[in-house]
Fold these 4 entries.
Entry 1:
Amino acid sequence: MTAQATREPAIRVRGIEKSFQDLPVLRGVDLDVEAGSIVALLGSNGAGKTTLVRILSTLSRPDAGTATVNGIDMGANPGRVRESISLTGQFAAVDEVLTGRENLVLIARLRHLRNPGAIADDLLARFSLTDAGGRRAATYSGGMRRRLDIAMSLIGDPPVIFLDEPTTGLDPQARIEVWQTVKKLADGGTTVLLTTQYLDEAEQLADRIAILHRGTIISSGTLDELKRLLPAVEVTYVEKQPSLEDVFLALVGEPSETDTADSSDRSATTQKGSR
Amino acid sequence: MTAHAVGDTGVLTGRSLRHILRSPDTIVTTAVTPIALMLLFVYVLGGAITTGSDGSYIDYLLPGILLITIASGVAYTAYRLFLDLKGGIFERFQSMPIARSSVLWAHVLTSLVANLVSVTIVVGVALVMGFRTEASVGAWLAVAGILVLFTLALTWLAVIAGLSAKTVDGASAFSYPLIFLPFISSAFVPTDSMPGPVAWFAENQPVTSIVDTIRALFAAEPVGGDIWVALAWLVGVLAVAYAVAMSIYRRRIG
């Protein structure tokens, strides 16, 4: 990760401010996201996460500050920014009247791609939705809807993807499915900026974590860097109990997150039991 | 980007037309109320109404019924637009590299198609009920043109309602006065049977000139100056509603 430090960041945010009426929501946000990395924007409800994502996905204009995506200035050229981004908003943005496949074909057409049908079929297969592809999205479960939502965002291979609270409201299996999807995206070179209020989600997924609190980034870095902000580690012996999530997943017969989501560069997960 | 505007609008229009195909009740309910009114006025009340014209009452009534059909149909446009705004799909479209106005135009074109289908159903029922016309092909085209203009004008009003509504009910409530307006016009009874101030209002509100023009076209009579008054109203309302809707839309999408 340190080797990439000199490259132009995929997302560069400088001094973004935004108020709604008299209520300041963002008070000068600075953030860099390296190309091909996953950055988690961690914050509680009302911290300004969604406001920042809306600004970065050109849905809202900041009162002050600048932002560039792939070197393109957001304020000067929002049209070109839209060509390199994709947004998966907080609430699944699928057309419930259309089938899953029709949703994908719709987006492929709007992105002016050739063979929208083939693109749709490929994504249905990648997201295990082939059987459900002919059903209306209104009949989908929350997890399926979210998968379709993310699949729609991947059409046209945008280099930068914004995910606003991608797992809020999902059951544990669906969360893990989403996590796996996001990791695969980053492995394929896509830059991902996601917001979350779940600490474990940030821990599991993110190369870097930025903590947004009361409208500014109060701290950012890798998980290890953030941990070093606290006093030195004290070694204590704690019996490793399975978490309720481990138990639940074992009982319903789905793989536990530590089996599927653990990867060599994330030593963080080994500390899970000590919390 | 504008090179794609037409294509994007086409794709999005296909999407909302598919919505209508999957809930055809929106077209049926649009046609049911005007058909019920037509039955009521022709078979129950019409016998007591003196129109002063030679033709049957249904010939007199149909133009106003067609306007009521369109006025109730555009409520669904506001409703569909409102639902798009409430769900996330609108923001997805706005964050994509597509022509910004194509989202609105798709709803407008869908409204046009849906209302023309409803109007065709109502005209079909009217023919069964004994509506007869001397109209030439040219006159039919002129009627169609006026109805298209009327639909566009009311649809852009519906866009304003859909963009600014806070609730689903609010989105369609704007259409009630529009549906009611033909009743205080020459659509059902001649305006000279009304008391002074009401007659004055009826004669000077847009529906009367539009209804009189369509009636004259169907009867193969000269339209006189009415058509210019009607066109002035239609183009005026269309232009103002379009400008207001677009400015609300631009503010809305930031």
Entry 2:
Amino acid sequence: MYNFDYTKPTDLSAAVEALGTEGAVAMGGGQTLIPVLKQRLSAPSTLVDLSAIDSMKGIRRMGDMLVIGGGTTHGAVASSADVAAAIPGLTELAAKIGDPQVRNRGTIGGSLANNDPAACYPSAALALGATIETNQREIAADDFFQGLYTTALNEGEVITAVKFPIPTASTYQKFEQPASRFSLTSVFLAKMGDGSVRVGVTGAGADGVFRHAGLEQALSSDFSASAVDGVEVSADGMSNDLHATPAFRANLVKVMTKRAIAALS
Amino acid sequence: MSTISITVNGQQKSGTAQGNTLLVDFLRSELKMTGTHVGCDTSQCGACVVHVNGESVKSCTVFASACDGAEVTTIEGMANDDGTLGIVQQAFHEEHGLQCGFCTPGMVMSIADILRNNPQPTEAEIREGLKGNICRCTGYHNIVKAAQSAAATMAGARQAAE
Amino acid sequence: MAKDNGIGASVKRREDARFLKGRGRYTDDMNRPGQTYAYILRSWSAHATLNSVDTSAASAADGVVRVFTGKDIEEAGLGGVPCGWEITDKHGNPMKEPAHPILAIGKVRHVGDPIAVVVAESYQQARDAAELIEVDMTDLPAVVDMRTAETIGSAVHDEATDNLCYDWELGDGEATDKAFAEAAHVTTLEFINNRLVANPMEPRCALGDYDEDADHYTLYTTSQNPHVIRLLMGAFVLSIPEHKLRVYAPDVGGGFGTKIFHYAEEAFVTWASAQLKRPVKWTSDRSEAFISDAHGRDHVTKAELAMDAEGKFLALRADTRANMGAYLSTFAPCVPTWLHGTLLAGQYLTPAVHCRVRAMFTNTVPVDAYRGAGRPEATYLLERIINKAAQELGMDQAELRRKNFIRSFPYDTPVALQYDTGDYDATLDAVLEMADYKGFEARKAESAARGKLRGIGLSCYIEACGIAPSSLVGALGARAGLYEAATIRVNPTGSVTVMTGSHSHGQGHETSFAQVVSDALGIPEDQIEIVHGDTDKIPFGMGTYGSRSLAVGGSAIVKAVDKVVAKGKKIAAHLLEAAESDIIFEDGQYKVAGTDKAKAFAEVSLAAYVPHNYPIEEIEPGLEETAFYDPKNFTYPAGSYLCEVEVDPETGKVEIVALSASDDFGNVVNPMIVEGQVHGGLAQGIGQAMLENAAYDEHGQLVSGSYMDYAMPLASDLPSFNVETAEGTPCTHNPLGVKGCGEAGAIGSPPAVVNAVVDALRDYGIDHIDMPVTPLRVWTAIQEASVKQAAE
């Protein structure tokens, strides 16, 4: 990889200042960024390691919200009793990311900021209607994801926390890509307090993570597998690669949604 | 270049690193500790697994600079003080859990970590816990047995201590 | 009772401690004073004319020692990478054998073809500088698909405008045609045997070190056969005489075939170290390995099986295209021919077999031997078509096989082999019992209740190991002998150092070879040291591949031990004042038969080195013997594997719920090590069947060029295996009665897995799915079959 200056600030303001340097890049846990750097696909002048900023770590319950610091690792989320009590789907999701070593370093903020089309977290953020809190503002998840590896974040903007509304029920059904073990097509399903159902799909869309309106509508009125059968999930807009055709991905959206329903029944 | 100080296997070590120097390269090239291996460049094979401040990490996906001041345990630190094999190492030996030996350092470190977090894992939990480690020789059969055997030995030791 | 030492004992490995403590010595762990680092700029185009390579900016970059291109290689007059096997085609003509330069000259022929090498003070500097090299290339149409390679109108090599390396055949075509004409039933199967990447966990590495004062070269390399590398590189590429060249392959982190071959990087670092008068090290990263290590398999085949009304096999016909890739790797031409066509009788009495193989050049990475090499392809062909036949005939898959088993030995097959021994019923019976074949329907019903489709698949493989004798393989085109060598050095106080030409890269020879010698000499294993891997220490040997180490290398050790004992008897006879013919050697003692007079092994050894009281007129002092063993025939391990799967029809995901293996390896020296070899082979075979696929797009780009897309089997993909080694039928022609076990698992398991998956899907009318049987392929097959069924 190309060389760069490495800095590990211990507070947010220092991090933001460092990110003001021309060519600076922020790193959460580095579990996706470092492999990218190894391939020389990115050439930062300064790498700002956010992992020492304690204020960005931690999980806390705030009323009907669960707030997870942007620098919280997947491992911390997976093993948190607060998360398991509030949003069990998030526990499942975090426990299925990568492998134990990746979970020990990778962070929720890093995952969301990268918006890899096969990453797990974006589906939860969308399905739960999370709010992404940054050093500058709050962004609704529905406005945050803007296509492959693209988000609403400005340069120098850092995800400090993610606020998740607490659903009445949630689950994450992951279907792995056979090689990378990322998501081939996975579904995060949340049943909200108002009775609405939200379905976040990752790994499938050619433009990245998305909510499936048809499934949400059908399930909000009839929370059953047969309701899923009645929904047409189009293969249009699904990505195509060695591991899955658009048609297969469309099928998996339905199958994983049905499994989510079964898991919650 | 900056100077990095790490406690490796209980010993204070220091050396120089660039910003982009990975922990594994620091260990292998700077500290001449070649027990930790590199088997891929996509952070998947786990031949490089070490423990940093008690957590299992891929040393190919952590910068040396990020570990300045950290406690690092590598495969070279897994034997007993008298040089005999530690419990996990001994289990690998007894169960023929290694062939070419290249993935072995990472496997031993990962299994030590699995057992620390879950002293009595099921076979499925062991297999799931090894998701970040690739072995091309053993088909994992005897690695899983080694993990089970090490768990039993540790349980016996705990019982004896009580 | 289980033995705790010697032949037959599961002796724990002496190698383990160093690996477990992080003290293995792999090539990349070696560093030499003044070492430089090489980074190779590789072609990103599959096929292009190389117009110019401008290295001026790179040469001036920080830390760069020198930049080399094909022009330097040409000017130095270096030879190309040689091929070790020449196939004669069906017309009696030699195969096309185009040059394979160390660095590309004039053209690049696959993604990964080396264009230039930057040698610098550090790896980072070398890689940085490589970005400054300006390459001007003109793309040419890429030849990727073997099926259209002959007619595409673009030639990988000018010497072969139709991209055909050879068109070869084996067997009696006329008799085969006649049998087909008279057959009651013919089953046809067209399939692809998927291309694989061997992926030993240690990437290749080579370190060249030239000693100017001694005018001597050392190459440290990740090789399965250091002497083969010394011979090929020294004699054919660099013109370095053997006495000036040492090749040392220390601990090697897995090979699986891909570290047999002589690679351009080895020649480059050796040569460059002399040019620069500094050591030069090259270490592959994994991405580079995907486009520079020889790949495996990659056949496109049409097979036909002719049977009578009762299911007796009458004839088999196979027509295969085999991918050679862009250049001929060391043993590539022999893999789809003599290691594939000859195995097409399998375990069966098929009177007529005919096999045609067209080897094709394509703009892809060279393809060569990978665990099993040709034999997995043959086994897959046979064991898949037999299951398809059973499906068509409505017969039980085990019964159809049993009806056709060979039961009388020695047996001459219609494809040039003579099986010396075997008992195929025994391993089949064993595996059916181990896997509770009879209880399958109940388990299938239980799976169905959970919405899963359960299938069971059998595979009865045979393989040929320790290919030999040299006179035969020479006639078949090998440019080397295939014997093995061993030296037994008895030290004065009776300990023994064994120098073997076999190479251990995971097989545990240091342990199992010591068991063999311990039994033969009656001395404890800890008195025996096994030395391998260093051409300066070991006798000229051919190395380890093709499951040959114990059958050939072990036999050489036994032969050398015999010579030691024979000489020891002469010395003992003198010391014991007895006739040599009265001396017997047993339990580590030279005894005078029928008396209690004896001399211990160590006493005789000491006498040999301190020859005060010694028959010096008759024999020389010292006790060191070398033997070369050239086998009379191949060995024929065989076995039966049974795989049980559950298919999720909604997602196409296949789970292996059980895999049972019964193998006949003849005599077994170390059951623990043998079972470990089977486990590893099974995982690689399952990998081929379910996960692994080196896929190229139409432009010749390797789509699955990293672990992000090339699916390696993980612990979570596999079950624990049910492996039993049968009592066995000992090989009749080697002194140990052993057959070889390294490749069996990878040979026998792929068809068992695919047969199980197809069995699970039989109600859809599905009769074949190509490997790997990924969720996508299984689901797609179900969709297509459902549409077809609905239309009917």
Entry 3:
Amino acid sequence: MAQVQLVILFTSVALVVIGLYSAIFIDNIIKKIIGISFIEEGVNLFIVAIGYKAGGVVPILMPGMDTSWFASNAAYPLPFGLVLTSIVIGASTLAVMLALVMVLYRRYGTLSTKVMLADTSKREEYDE
Amino acid sequence: MLEIVLSIVIVLSAILALIQKDLLKAAILTGFAGAALALLFQVLLAPDVALTQAIVEGAIVPIFIALAVKKTQRSDG
Amino acid sequence: MNELIPLMVIVPLMAALLISAFSKLNKVTKIFAFVVAICLPLIPLLSNYGLHYFGGYEPILDNVTGMIYHPAITYSFTFLQQIFIGAVGLLTFLVIFIYLTKYKKVSGPYLFLLFLGTAAVTAMMLTDDIFHMFVFFEILALAQVGIVAASSIDYSYEMALKYMVLGSIGSPMMLLGIGFLLALTGSVNVTDIAVAVHNGLVDAASPVFLLSLALIFFGWLYASGMPPFHTIKSGIYSKAEPHGAALLQSFTVISMISIVLIMFRIYASLPIFEVLIVFFSILAMILGVSLALTQTDFRRMIGFLAVGELGFIGLGIGLGTNFSITAGLFQALNEIIITALLFIGFGAIVNATDEVDTRKLGGLLAYHPKVAIMLLIGGLAMAGVPPLSGFQSKLMLVQASLSCGFPEISILAIMVSIATFVVFVKTYYTMFLKPKPNDLDLEGKEVPKAMIFAMGVLLIIVILLGIFPDVVTGGISNFVGGIL
């Protein structure tokens, strides 16, 4: 069914667009980070959809399966392996960003990006 | 049919998470989107990815965000 | 000994993990870090050229289509990888040596980050697998952010968070580009993708292929700090400790050339690819030098000059002939060494004066003559004065653009070199030759011996490469002949 892949494509595009919007326009840094995690999820969803095969089976060779039938019907497992790595990377970058936010909150007492990040350039007059 | 329902759940909870005033609710809704995405991965014949996604994006990431919110402030603004 | 090829990544990675686990034992950590740091430049020198297949999965010949597939993650080790990994290994050794002698109590996590970054760029340089490169690209971004955040300079956390937020928008874009390539070719091995593109299995004019180029190119711009990311890149250099900045810029240069070589092998048939690279390189050259002119913080100035020098590398690769790519890669090697020399030298001045504003400095020549002379030679090498190494690579670049039929570009390159010279001499004059301001206290402050040692080693390499460029260019030219 091509319908499944179409739905998945729409979902992943929607997630990337929502994420990009929030990463660029929302002022609150925690919401920015949540938005960034949505971008990553959208991309992961897209890559998993590459490996999907309509009407196929899970790419795990069970005992008793015919090998040639399995080879022609199983989904493509390489993208799945990539996404596994990518999910973990996304979680670790998110953790590092949240840790930096927690340190910066102690200094500024606010989560607003305008105060937290852009203001350094005003205090350093040589930064354009 | 299942994939359409799951897609709607993911997109809705993503949008709801970003318009919440309460950041703790936003963290929970992020976990909701992650868990729904894990089910969607199961539909897409990737059970191994689904397991990882359910643990990481469905549980660990919302807990991280909730911890960060607890250490900082709960309301947006 | 081909077994040494994976060790180039494994040794720093394991060292990083062990050091962070046992960082309570100060003395043991110091000795261990020193030993590993000595090993880093030696392993690539001792290793033989060749390929390494992880898991031992050899390439498979498909009997139906007659094509060869690479099922394993492949590391390819040639002369190019040898000199670049050797250079970054040497630099890591010098930086760790400076760090260990500077502080009595060493920080395990900081050493962890330095080794992690080295492992990441080594893997990016070696790998023949585009997703493997992406993974280490992310690890490198984390290590860079950590090195910046670990410094004790004001606003370093803000800069680290900014870099991280931009990076986590840039890297999913790159992953999406890799996803498009995977969807088109069904493989993540660069050799397989390149063969598929050259044999016409992939429609080179299809919008998906162009979109994948655009997305990976965006990730490359972020990794290399080309415009529009030049401000943040020079910002993180100025917010890191000086020896950390010396290592960070080498990470930037190596990640830049390893991504651009992979892109070159896949997309070289598209004319727009070379236009894009040349366009952004020229933009980086002009913006880097003109922004460097306006800086009063000399660390920031070197940061912008380093971005401008990156433009020369991109220019050489964008022109696309054997000679120009050789020139670009030779320029990359020179930039790693010269910029590290400048960062360490200016870092020594920061150490001795606690001042980064050039307007408040002056008359340092009488107090630190060794640093002053070595910095002068380094700056002249960066500006391209004969017979130093920067001159040889820039001369090659100018000749290459002339022989490609772009005299405008060679004139521009010469003008940017002159502007670099002006920026450097202006800063050098205000710092070293101008009379000393009255409120500047210089008595009793010494430059660390380790920094002078590191500068001396780098300076010897600069002069040797300037006098005998053929040692390196011949081997690079052979490598470039292989990928064209």
Entry 4:
Amino acid sequence: MNGKVIAAVVVIVVGVILGAVNFLESNVEYADFGTAERSGKKVQVKGEWMRDMESRFDMEKAQFTFYMRDDNQQVEKVVLEGAKPNNFEIATSVVAKGRFQNGHFHASEVLTKCPSKYEGDAESVKKTL
Amino acid sequence: MTIGIVGGILVKLSFFAALAAAFFYYRISRSGMTHLTAFARNSYHLATVSLMSAAAILLYLVLSHQFQFAYVWNYSSTDLPLPLLISTFYAGQEGSFTLWALYTALIGVFLMHYAMSKEYEPEVMSIYSLILSFLLLMLIVKNPFEFIWDRFPNDLIQTGPVPPGVANIVVLDAAKSVWARYPAEGKGLNPLLQNYWMVIHPQILFVGFSAMAVPYAHAIAGLLKKDYNSWIRVATPWLVFGGMVLGTGVIMGGYWAYETLGWGGFWGWDPVENSSLVPWLLCVAGIHTTLVQRKNGAYVKTNFALSILTFVAVLYSTFLTRSGVLGETSVHSFVDPGMWVYWLLLGWMIVFAALGFGLLFIRSRAMPVKPVEHSIFSREFALFLGAFALTFVAIFVTIGTSSPIITTLMKGKASAVEMSYYVKTNLPLGIAIAFLSGLGQLLWWKHSQEKSVLRSTLPSIVIAGATTLLMAVFATEEVMILIFAFCSVFSLAANTQVGYGIYRGNPKFIGGSVAHVGVALLCLGFITSERYDDTKTVSLERNKPVEALGYTMTYVGYAPIDRERFGFNVELEKNGTRHTVTPTMYFSEFTRGLMRHPDLLNFLSRDLYLAPLSLEEEQKGDLKSVELQKGAEARVGELTVTFVDFSDVDRMAMIESREFTIKAKLSVKEGTGKPRAVTVSIRGSQRGMEPEVVLYRDHRDRGYEFLLSRILPNREDPALSTIVLDVKLPEDPAIARRGETLVVEASIKPMINLVWMGTVTLVIGFFLTILRRVSEARERTRWERG
């Protein structure tokens, strides 16, 4: 009986530690471009898309390239593995998840933050009058 | 207008009736005042009928496009086909809570009759009515019958004389001449939801959510009555029913994401998906531990805890996905519904968790403690471990989904976990579950002889070992995946073996084996379709065949599907067989974004999945236009162009309006090199002026295109005549010149049909189990009554 209890406790403790380590590892920290460049770690950077600078989709590599300015006004080239994110044009800000690589920010994911678009607002009510 | 006010009143009536039913039933259970029974039942029926009427009114408002109601305006429009128009009933929060409440109320009618015969009516129905009244309270806070001018008073309500000839006007107060305008068209349904799954999937999910309230109500009833054993027998059919329906809903959501949303797989660990998965996992864990208690009376507290927890998980999921607390950490947009809803959802969860666990704590000392009588080699222990693993999966998934809340508390900034978190934490548990789902079936209750265990498991172990060995030889694979595959095949073989035995003996009991075969198939489907998925980004220039993934793919052009959507036809050929798939892509006015939907070919052994990424139009190099007088020069790209003179001007032809050509001589210089002569021309006829394109290649063989687009003659001084020269600069050499190109992500998903087959098998297993448990519960009651 005692052996069983010990085994159960060991299983639970191992499970909890495994879970906690995984949780912390997979929770990508927020950072700015400067910190991201120095650490080389995978981070999330919040910023704004530079509309007047080059942005294009490379068909061969299936990468979307654009320029982004972080909250410290630092502008960097961002290469996203994938197509242009949805609602990219109307996003008020974007969050790029990735790390610095060969002088640019290489993103695995870019989330767009949009003005609340699904709830009806006063502006859209006027449009449908 | 009045009908909407009636709808609002009916919701309130329903709320008070449900509250009254909860109160009367509680009085009956406390003091046995059976004369109140009729009051309690009538109150419950009144609540149900009022709610049904309110729902019917809402449906009528939706179908007849009454855009003076904010909810109807917000989610529907006149151009939707009927099934989708009906589905806008539950496209928003107000409507989906209405649907949830409606199903809860209707299930309660059956529950009442069921509980009557089991002598559980007062306790079960008092708790159940309380749950219903909480749902109805939500409808009072988030009123689906709110008028649009009440939501936007500043924009819509006006005072003064009503201007003539303006439609869609409601006079609110004739004496003070207050009136309001309302929209003639609705905002429409989110295009992501415009799909036949929208018609069926939310309905099934809400039936499942509603059903999860029943085991909870039974657990509380058991605690109130101090009946710690027989409540299980009464509650089990409902627990299995909830598990079946919610499980169907969960996997349907996965199929929806796979087939139309283009997530590439059937599971994305998205908060919305997770929030229906967690209650299901806990429900399934509960099904297993109640089995032990039925057999030998163990796990009394565990069963109470799991039944309570399943419902609390439903409430927590609702809180996560409906309160706006997750913010924008996911691809789903979580609308912030306001403070009221947030606190109501949070309070709701706390109240029912506190009620359940508080009662459990109070009663736990009085509960009989049954000493553990089973050995490690017993079915009881395997069931316990399995339930334990399922609960752990539920906990890990809940923690992962709650990450934005946890990180906000810890670091002040919300962030979501990566998908890898779910895979890493759940893979070992998945292995354990797969293994136990096979082993448990082969063990005896109480204790099995080691020798007999070995003998009965040997065939399955041999089959699983051989399959895994083949896999290890032919595919380089991680150890964990190999173990997972081994356990899944083992479970498949073991359950087939056991199932066959039961089928020949007593087919009534086959439900468990069938469900486990389904789980094993599902696990194998996960492995084949996720691990051996072959994905490639392919650029398909129009009408140019490309070889990829063993297919010849040709993009043959696009065609409109309806007002907004475009289908992109891709022909696929393999060994002489031709297929066409049509992924769609369009710009949606509603979301103001690009929508992409995949298309797939489903074969027995695999799916070919084509998700569109983008359409690249023909590349147009930079066009530069320069105006040049005779003798003047201009920089164009890296060239210096000088307009020398006109040549061969046929004035007679121009005057007689015959066809004529004007030529202009240019001198083009590259850097410091020698200038070269280039002649551009424009041909005039009665049809107009037609310039001719002249190609110029520089020393690096980059092509400039010259075009004499216009001549601005100066009649006084022909020497001052000007030409307009359009020059197309060469393409960036990094980008090859192409025509219209469709970029797709093509992938092959081997044996993904195993996932769907497994799901169907699992659901059938659940169904067979319900049949068995219902008839058991019925026989037992008959027997008890003598």
